[in-house]
Design brief:
333 residues, single chain
């Protein structure tokens, strides 16, 4: 009987221990699940809290800015301060907002100045003071870039703005050539020297007689001169083949048969003879025998001694027999 009781006690004790172990295990699992669920629940909460912090910071910043504005307004007796800003530097293209005329001059007639920005020349601007009369001091000088003077040091041409009256259109602003006779010979000294060395009717004219209306104008020769030949239509390009424009009597002839018709304008008889009586001379350019105006070569310079020394000694002048070089078939009896 005593043994049975002890066995029952032992069984009860083991049962209690097993129950405690089961309860402890269940508690751990429930805690883990609870922690996991709490973490998942707290994620949106954390995000919401972060958003609140950011909004609070922005609100604080806005409040500070408003407070600063209130201080500025208070310092200015309550009115708004339009100048309480930090301006950005101007770009040179924004100069047009106030200086439209100068901008348009540069855009259409600026020449090489079109490659230069406003502030490259105008290093000082918006500082003119009529009380100080400082206009000359703040205006850029041509010598900032054009140094040495491009036209030399002659007193007549060192004052740039006397000719280039508008630096924003330096060529287009030049006065009419008739008012620049003195300056022409200074800037174009080589041409003046050529015309003096080789006088012609052109040397009796003023520069502006040909280069009229505006600086750099190239006239057409036909404005004064007629064609040499009715067989060809001549313009400046054709005239300049033979006549240098400033020394027109220094004539040179290119050896081109196609230009023979030009010579025919004055020498139609010889031209027609060469065409009517075809010989080897008919295939030559006039300039091959006449390298200069009113000049002709000796026959020997091309033909040598075609008939031997004895005949050349007896008839030293070829034209004794070949009476017409433009018609070699015509011989003397």
């Amino acid at each position: 009987m005593k043994r049975v009781r002890e066995s029952n006690r032992l069984a009860l004790l083991c049962g209690l221990l097993s129950l405690l172990l089961v309860m402890f295990g269940f508690g751990c699992v429930q805690k883990t699940v609870h922690q996991t669920s709490a973490t998942q629940v707290n994620k949106p909460a954390a995000k919401k809290a972060t958003t609140k912090v950011i909004k609070r910071a922005k609100k604080t910043k806005t409040v500070k800015a408003k407070t600063a504005k209130k201080v500025v307004v208070a310092q200015n007796n309550g009115h708004k301060n339009l100048y309480a800003v930090t301006p950005r530097p101007l770009k040179f293209t924004e100069c047009i907002r106030c200086h439209k005329a100068e901008f348009e001059d540069l855009k259409y007639h600026g020449g090489k100045h079109q490659a230069v920005s406003c502030t490259a020349c105008h290093t000082k601007f918006h500082c003119y003071n009529p009380l100080k009369h400082n206009y000359k001091q703040i205006m850029p000088k041509c010598s900032q870039c054009h140094n040495p003077p491009p036209h030399g040091n002659n007193p007549a041409v060192i004052h740039c703005l006397e000719c280039h009256r508008n630096p924003h259109e330096p060529i287009a602003s030049l006065p009419k050539p008739a008012k620049m006779a003195k300056e022409c010979k200074i800037c174009h000294a080589n041409i003046a020297a050529e015309m003096k060395k080789h006088p012609s009717a052109h040397a009796q004219l003023q520069c502006s007689d040909c280069h009229s209306k505006y600086h750099g104008r190239i006239p057409n020769c036909s404005e004064c001169h007629q064609n040499h030949s009715p067989l060809v239509k001549m313009g400046t390009k054709q005239c300049l083949v033979c006549h240098p424009v400033h020394t027109p009597l220094m004539i040179s002839y290119p050896c081109k048969k196609s230009l023979n018709a030009v010579c025919a304008g004055c020498h139609s008889k010889q031209y027609n003879e060469l065409r009517r009586h075809h010989t080897k001379h008919s295939d030559l350019a006039c300039a091959q025998c006449h390298p200069r105006h009113a000049m002709w070569l000796k026959c020997q310079q091309c033909h040598g001694l075609p008939h031997g020394k004895a005949l050349a000694k007896k008839f030293p002048n070829c034209l004794t027999c070949h009476v017409n070089p433009h018609d070699l078939n015509a011989v003397s009896n």
